[in-house]
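Sharing a chain and its predicted structure for anyone who wants a worked example. Both blocks are below, sequence first, tokens second.
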Amino acid sequence: MKKIVLFLLLAVGCTAPRGWTAWEKTIIERSDSVMYVCVMPQDSAILRAPSQNLEPELLQSAPLKTLLDKMYRTLTDPSQDGVGIAAPQIGINRRLILVMRYDKPGEPIEPYLNIQIDSLLGEKVPGPEGCLSLPPYRGIVRRYPRVQISYVKPDGTPVTEKVEGYSAIIFQHECDHLDGILYTDRADTVMVNENWAEERKGFSYEKPDWWR
């Protein structure tokens, strides 16, 4: 029995993916500076899949730097004008998000690698939410006002901190993406945003030719 268990462990270790996959490299290398954003329902297989951590050897790799730059450009493009984005939204199921820190001077947009929410603090409060991957809709979602998070900086430094206010809401929304959860799964109400077409005009939701 011990030999069988050892064989299975070795087999899993040998077959577990390490480093960037070929498809991840394709997305990083071939995407424009404004990346294709996965949307429901056509990209549900990606948006509903759980994300994996980045291995230590990827944290300071050139592809990661390129990916962070393109995700930043996508998030801040006027056609999107978002406050957060998760890697699954651009087709990569890794625990990586960008969040606008409203609780910091200058409201910087910062990357968070291998992020986890360790604690949800306070009493839930309702608030409006939207999502780049669900462009026609808006909803009311109950979220916790404070969170404790742990993550790794791009330079490899591990961090644990508490966040409160609107940024805490964004962290919950984006970390849900990493677990295959959409805000509509948690919403009290969901409605069509009548202004979505105007807000997103000029942005194409068609997949690039190389993606198909």
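Comments welcome. Strands lie at 84-86, 96-100, 109-121, 125-129, 137-143, 146-152, 158-164, 187-192.
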